[in-house]
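Q: What does the assembled structure look like for these inputs?
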Amino acid sequence: MNFDFTEEQLMIQQAARDYAQRELIQDVLEREEKAEFPARHVKNLAELGFLGMMVSPEYDGAGMDSVSYVLALQEIAKVDASVAVIMSVNNSLVCYGLQRFANEEQKQKYLKPLARGEVIGAFLLSEPEAGSDATHQHAVAEDKGDYYLLNGTKNWITNASSASVYIVMAQTHPDKKSRGINAFIVDKNTPGITLGPHENKMGMRSSDTHSVMFSDVKVPKENRIGEDGFGFKFAMMVLEAGRIGIASQALGIATGAFERALAYSQERKAFGTEIFNHQSVAFKLSDMAVKIENARNLCLKAAWLKDNHQSITVAGAMAKQYAADIAMEVTTEAVQIHGGYGYVKEYHVERLMREAKLTQIYEGTSEIQKIIISRSLIKE
Amino acid sequence: MKILVLISNVPDTTTKIRFTGDNKSFDTNGVQWIINPWDELALTRAMELKEAGAFETITVANVGTQITESTLRKALAVGADEAIRVDAVPQDAFFVASQLAKVAEGYDVILAGIEASDYNGAGVGGMLAELLGINSVSAVSGLEIENGALKVHRDIDGGSQVLSVPTPVVLIVQKGIAIEPRIPAMRGIMMARKKPLNVIAPVDAESKTEFLGFELPAPKAACKMVEEDNAKELIRLLHEEAKVL
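A:
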């Protein structure tokens, strides 16, 4: 086995680290407090190539592998999970979905500007009454001959107000159940689209989350992705790949909290010595380090499988569930190690703890991942 | 015009420094290498000038073994067009300058960082100019090129000086030459793989220095807090313990 990274992978990791440590750290607390979208950073990261990392250069992407993507997202999320989720949605849901399943005209028109990061995208699957159970789509896309008429509401949409391109799942043939669902590319400025208020979230507050309402929205026929009824399969395949992104984000959140706790434990003194010298603290850090190493290995394994065109169904679910769960544990312990300081905003770890919680919920809850993993155990 | 930027390969500034062999050499095990920060700023300014049309290509050069190639590759990713590595273990400033003199001929402008963040030798730039028989300007904090003419800003005691200098010239640059080093874009990282990195055999040059030993700075003493109204105690500590008064 070869655990070495290539020169390029290390350079990408360093570039992401440099950007996060030099730029994101400057205003992360303020943006988070004000729930302000990081427009300037998204633009800068787009220029560096981080918004379309894995899209082939033919469609203006950077043509990088998934291992580089894991390394980069980890570095960004260590400092700012909101920026990491914006990056993850654009890369692993929107760009990935289009690169893999869109036709040539759609790629030319939509994928290219998305890969350059000139515009960003959003992925609209969840509904007020369809979260984990995504087969029951209430949004309807009625076939009107040369266009579809879209009606319904989508919930918890990351990038909802800042995105220009929506990928929307909706039911066309209710009698066919999940096989009647279609996926569409929808321009956000199409008449009939309105946004709900900015969700006032517990964490990742500078990513813009809204519900999106569709009222008699006309979607051109040529904007359907794949064959009629391909939408559910499309969404599931895209989400499968997307798990690597959220797993890496969770890994980054955990690593960020761990690094802060480790540094603090060597500065703060109690009972006459640095608190690292107390076994109760040192053992916590030891446990955190092992969990992070495990999560990192799961993320990199899933990325490696994807880069080698092998199935990531189980590996991705394992990485996502484990990294999200340990992110919650590690960030909670990081707050504990900081004591009272951990509970105030300037020390960052309380924010990382709030951010970690979302990774257990979105893009497939930890419980959904366990369904995927457990079902795989009894398959031949 | 042709520009050459000298690149020193130095340990990352967060490296834990250890010595081996009776404290006569630096332990490079597990060290992360980076471009010397002053050289990185020099490269950044070279890029800006290239974008403004002053140069067509930027060459970077280094004296070092194969471990320095990832540092040179990073310089290529940031935007240099070609790299030269003189394949030798750098011994001292004279040795390095002698090696660079072989590759630095024919360039109009040669940029050298004022010092390297590892040994702080601050010798290569001046020695290289001498070996090449050309001018050098030290402590350069600004460089402009208008119609092929160089306008050089340097920091002097209590102010600054602006010079017009003929080429070829070695400019020994410091902070201020550029604001912030550039982060390589992914496109640059991919292109770096295809850019030329030429490895050149070293010339015979004797080193003029022998390292007798290294030692780490004394560990920082614990911080002593003095009550704000106890100036007497503060003076006593500064006088008797810190011995600065």
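Chain B has one domain: 3-216.
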